[in-house]
Amino acid sequence: MKIVLQRVSKAAVEIDGKVHGQINAGFMLLVGASDTDGQEEIKYLVHKISKLRVFSDEDGKMNRSIEDIGGAILSISQFTLFADTRKGNRPSFTGAGNPEHAKQCYEQFNEAMRATGLQVETGEFGADMQVSLVNDGPVTIIFDTDHK
């Protein structure tokens, strides 16, 4: 699985002009899955993200987790994280999981994040979405379970 995490002060996703999910302080996640991803990758990512210390403590150091600040997550499915741009000018997405499997991984990931006690808002798998966010910092971190 691949996840692009951005620390945000707020984020929202709209579908067909209507707000589908929105959060204040926390993480906006772009989530992609391949056909080889499953429970092991989900468990690894949930632990890493829920414990990631990138929020400022009283000394201004990145030493607090999303759990520590009572933050929320906006999770957006994103198959284009698997774009292969090595040849030509049109990316290939053959590395992305087939839609049924990728959707299952995405939904299981979101449920596992919720099981930690965090509020998790989502987009809609496969939908045309408009995502807006205010990246706080900016802080952007990339997770790739092929490189854990």
UniProtKB/TrEMBL annotation:
The lineage of its organism: Bacteria, Bacillati, Bacillota, Bacilli, Lactobacillales. It catalyses: a D-aminoacyl-tRNA + H2O = a tRNA + a D-alpha-amino acid + H(+); glycyl-tRNA(Ala) + H2O = tRNA(Ala) + glycine + H(+). Belongs to the DTD family. A Gly-cisPro motif from one monomer fits into the active site of the other monomer to allow specific chiral rejection of L-amino acids. It is found in: Cytoplasm. One of its GO terms (biological process) is D-amino acid catabolic process. Homodimer. One of its GO terms (cellular component) is cytoplasm. It comes from the Bacteria. A motif (Gly-cisPro motif, important for rejection of L-amino acids) lies at residues 137-138. Keywords: Cytoplasm, Hydrolase, RNA-binding, tRNA-binding. GO terms for molecular function: D-tyrosyl-tRNA(Tyr) deacylase activity; Gly-tRNA(Ala) deacylase activity; Ser(Gly)-tRNA(Ala) hydrolase activity; tRNA binding. InterPro entries: Daa-tRNA_deacyls_DTD (IPR003732), DTD-like_sf (IPR023509). This is D-aminoacyl-tRNA deacylase. Transmembrane segments: none annotated. The gene is dtd.
